[in-house]
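thought: fold this chain, then report.
action: predict
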Amino acid sequence: MPKAALGSANARLLTGQQIAGGFLAAPLVPVLLLAGAAVPYAADAATYVLGAVLIASLPVTGPQRPPRPAGSTLRGDIAQGLRALWGDRVLRGICVATTLCNIGMAALIATLVLHVTGWLDGGHGGYAATLTAYGVGSVAGGLLAGRLSTRIGRVRSVFTAGAVQIGCLAAMGLVRELWVTIGAMVLFGVMGLVWNTNQVTLMQERSPEAMLGRIGSAFRTLAVAGAPLGALLGGAAAAAWGLNAPALLAAALFAAAIASLAALIN
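observation:
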């Protein structure tokens, strides 16, 4: 695929994933639960099997690459990916920022149901509306990502998305109104897809073709490693300072992420 088409392709892929997960699969969970607590897990396992079968059926011809050097090891490949990632100033900054944001996102998601049903007294309907708002925003973000990056560039698009998300999280944590949270989640979802699309595309554009898999694996591993920590921090913050505290904690972590990106756009 030409590098010029990466942005639009990633936007379509991520938008499709959001539609499939948020609007097609998620509504099926209550139906499956009625059939038994184990049924959703069995259905999830079946989708993995189906996915493997579909992938195996694709007639894909990989790019011609030189054979792996003799003596190559998995540990050595991992080390190469980490060194290449850390050696690129832009990718290093984006990876640090994404890791901080994922910690904040995990803190929010782990406690969001309590935030909506407890602090906002929005009930299960309010929680469903909040999740739907995020899904709608994410789909819209897939349509916006390419246009925004064309206007201001990919790094600035990531920076702008994070800055807007700080405001969304602050509004959620400070304003005790369900409609404010729903509106904030729409915008939060829009900017989330703008961030993800441009972050993935930047990684693909800046990675040498022979190193793309190793750099991508290192990036994703580092970026998601903080999610369990974020969930623990979110629960601790909610217990110590109130059910709105995780949203404010997430806002602070997003602010730290944006601060780490500031040097890349100057």
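thought: worth noting. The chain has one domain: 75-264.
final: tokens above.
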